């Protein structure tokens, strides 16, 4: 009796405590910035937030994952201050792009990767399309050994898949194949599965998997900047139009020379300042005026 | 006289205590039911929205094989491959795990004696605490190549999923069954042995029979874990929404599709609602399993 | 004669199956410990994690895992104990009770991401608790309730009726009998339930990503004021647990030593679970001896 009662009293006390402090924390929300969304962008923002808080101790920044869709829907509802996304708000179902403000904070390049045992270094865009639409199913057809191609696609609706299909598939339906959600998992599966092919962000290249050049163009930052390498996209941070000062200051910091020059390239992204072309939300690539200076 | 009557009809201290106790425990059950019902309500309302708000066909959902809820102009929500995938891995892993779990539990309670149990129990319970991701990666580096060399194919498929789930389900089933075996009164065993039954006869005819309800609960919770598991299965099953034709070709489960998709969709849209429909199917299927197991249990118990 | 042979064969089969299970257990644990332990150093256990440089540790995550477990049990144990008592001792054996049982069991098959999302929408967004340990603990409570309740109910049912009769015949109320006689007698089974659910709390990732969050703010272990932002005891701070950290570095980690950190963290997690299990069982047995007449 005593034991059970104690437990219940404890639980109810906690509930009261919870409500009390819940009210408290609401009043101090002014200087707190909550960031939710894209797991791919998370390491960059987390590191930047940690650096930022060292100098601005009055601001409390929380960075969480949850996926681009979650980030966009939560910022649209005003539940969080910033929503991280790999895709344009215009391209996400159920998001009214007019209700949110886009801040592009980095550019990410993606490239096809294959298992070590595949003796191919270069692939043409047309052949790459045929592999991912299921028209080429054996490495023999691409000049390799007689081995089945194991295609590992990315999750439906994910930012990286949208970017890849926009450039490579050009509207053709993708082969119904294995799908994996995260860069890390794809990296490990490609590493472990003979004859496999998938695609990854540049940051996840390592020496246990092989990345392919397309039509002789190597996947690297230089080629992305002038759009010779075509598979790339932005990392976005979305806010409400009437975002708090703390939020805007942090966004400003993300776009500053300091973050873009060091942190962004350290993590394998490409600085937005270095881009000589711009990608619009309706998939047009246009040169940026005066980008050469 | 009245004083005596009052004294007699008044509730005793013990009775008041009992009432209060009953109230407290009833409150706990009510709280749990409240939580359960609110989750169920959320899943049901969101899951049904696919059919009522987005006007997708329920028949197509259960019979079509193409899953592409964000396709334009006509979204495709055929969940059959996932339903078959989930069903197969759950049943297969439970079937595979049950004999091992029963044997291990019997070994721990009735054969090995105290020391064997003392060593085995913590080790088995340890397995519950290993995160699914770790199981997934061990599956990827050990189980998938194993299946590939022994059974052919790419190694990704229902078979690999079954092997991984088997290990994940085993500790839950075993430890829960150990407790029900311990709850079988000692005099059952003594009576049976006194009648001249061998150890196996005692185990098979008396102990297992007496613990059937506990065994079923254990298996239900094991299957529940298998059903709800996402991360580990997702890595080894291949996660391709294709109707599986054999055990070694890539397939997918309800949970793996749900988990990969949920972060990329926006609440209230069709692609998101369709995922909640998968969760609803999951619920209904585990309900069916549950009822089925109970039904079988009622027949088997004495 | 025949029965004896069957007995021998059956015993052999049991030994074989158990042998295979032990083999799997040893191989699995050996694999994790052998790949992980070489990376476990004192500084790995105490230093904070690093976003993309090599050499990050798991100090905060380890603390968070235990703290979250403590909070979760604090919430879920009393509730499921009460519910278990009701189902085992008070509930009438009718269809309603059966329906309650089935509903609770069905809840346990929900994928953790659904529970996580439910917790996110309700606690993080609706109740404005934010990404916090307390949101995570409540979400994990949902998870634990079915297993714990059923386990407690089964353990209570396992206690011989003689015990109840003895209690009642001494003039104790039913409630007193349950709490003073039956629950103590059922303690070993209850402990198993706690250990199993604790294991799930330690290993859970998907439900926590949306509730407790996946970032660990810098903690100041000298600050024991639970209302201060950087205090480790603050229940309103986001808290990444060890399992979430392993998940994160495996899926999106880009530090050069990601696989080593992951292997080391897995080994540490296993040891933490082992320590907790042995500790819980030891404490349970100690209490059991103190409050019951058994030796």
Automatic annotation (TrEMBL), chain A:
Pfam families: PBP_like_2. InterPro entries: PBP_domain, Phos-bd, Phosphate_ABC_transporter. Its main location: membrane. Keywords: Cell membrane, Lipoprotein, Membrane, Palmitate, Phosphate transport, Signal, Transport. It is a lipid-anchor. GO terms for cellular component: plasma membrane. Residues 1-25 form the signal peptide. GO terms for molecular function: phosphate ion binding. Residues 26-257 form the PBP domain. It is found in: Cell membrane. It comes from the Bacteria. GO terms for biological process: phosphate ion transport. The complex is composed of two ATP-binding proteins (PstB), two transmembrane proteins (PstC and PstA) and a solute-binding protein (PstS). Belongs to the PstS family. Part of the ABC transporter complex PstSACB involved in phosphate import. This is Phosphate-binding protein.
Automatic annotation (TrEMBL), chain B:
Residues 83-293 form the ABC transmembrane type-1 domain. Keywords: Cell membrane, Membrane, Phosphate transport, Transmembrane, Transmembrane helix, Transport. CDD domains: TM_PBP2. Pfam families: BPD_transp_1 (PF00528). The chain crosses the membrane at residues 21-43, 83-111, 123-144, 156-178, 206-227, 274-292. One of its GO terms (cellular component) is plasma membrane. NCBIfam families: phosphate_pstC. Belongs to the binding-protein-dependent transport system permease family. CysTW subfamily. This is Phosphate transport system permease protein. It comes from Pediococcus pentosaceus.
From TrEMBL, chain C:
It comes from the Bacteria. GO terms for cellular component: plasma membrane. One of its GO terms (biological process) is phosphate ion transmembrane transport. Residues 62-280 form the ABC transmembrane type-1 domain. Its main location: membrane. The keyword Nucleotide-binding does not apply. Keywords: Cell membrane, Membrane, Transmembrane, Transmembrane helix, Transport. The chain crosses the membrane at residues 12-34, 66-88, 100-123, 129-148, 181-202, 261-280. GO terms for molecular function: phosphate transmembrane transporter activity. Gene3D superfamilies: MetI-like. CDD domains: TM_PBP2 (cd06261). It is found in: Cell membrane. PANTHER family: ABC TRANSPORTER PERMEASE PROTEIN YQGI-RELATED, PHOSPHATE TRANSPORT SYSTEM PERMEASE PROTEIN PSTA-RELATED. Belongs to the binding-protein-dependent transport system permease family. CysTW subfamily. This is Phosphate transport system permease protein PstA. It comes from Pediococcus pentosaceus. The gene is pstA.
